[in-house]
Amino acid sequence: MLTIDKLSVHYGGIHALQGVALEVPDGKIVTLIGANGAGKSTTLKAIIGLVKTSSGNVTWNGGSLTGLGTKEIVEKGVVLVPEGRRVFPNLTVDENLALGAYSRSDRAGVAADRDRVFSLFPRLEERMKQRAGTLSGGEQQMLAVGRAIMTRPKLLMMDEPSLGLAPLVVKMIFDIIREINKTGVTVLLVEQNAKAALEIADYGYVLETGRMTFHGAGRELLADDRVRKAYLGEAE
């Protein structure tokens, strides 16, 4: 289980996270929703060690992640698919996937996971020798997720995986998130597409200007008038 307790982050004089607390139980999909600037991406970056925390603690399966380097955190099985894909544009699809497994020495396992990525995303196998920078936005998102799978994550964190993608591709990405979760991978999902995120989430949290305002089961939040008005574009 991932547990965040009273987490605070400052960017200069800006108090970006203000005592955030949440739990991500093993094997579940948890989503974090909120408006732009609410602190969603900062929360993921704090977990993975990309931003320095001011106070609070992050624990994963009983051990503290606070103060660890990103490489150490990834080696513990906590992996982030960043916003904007961040694939290596001048490397091929296959080379990007190989980099996902850079810290692994189990060749048979790496080969099996590569085959698994291609079974989830057949289009990547078709473009195996193509440079990542020439892929469409949807294909780059597939590659970013595939690269994360190559690390063999226990907790997969995803930052805005649907951003800028066509509706059909968005549906496919969310279907894949479900499939990954069914294999036992815990998922923490940050999304502005609140409806799509809450439909697949076991549990959801709402973040507003650095503070956690309310939370509940995914379906409960979908039916909550506050969420419907603020994040689903529905009038009272």
Summarize it:
It is built from ten helices and ten strands.
Which keywords apply here?
10 helices, 236 residues, 10 strands, four-stranded antiparallel sheet, globular, six-stranded mixed sheet, single chain, Rossmann fold, alpha/beta
Give an account of the 3D structure.
The chain is α/β, with parallel strands linked by helices and 236 residues long. It has a domain at 1-69 and 189-236: Rossmann fold (3-Layer(aba) Sandwich). The chain has helices spanning 40-48, 70-75, 93-100, 107-120, 122-126, 137-149, 167-182, 194-200, 218-223, 225-231; strands at residues 2-11, 14-24, 29-33, 55-60, 63-64, 78-81, 155-159, 186-190, 203-208, 211-217. The strands form two sheets. A six-stranded mixed beta sheet has the order 6-7-8-3-9-10, sandwiched between helices. A four-stranded antiparallel beta sheet has the order 2-1-4-5, covered by helices on one side. Strand 7 (155-159), helix 7 and strand 8 form a beta-alpha-beta unit.
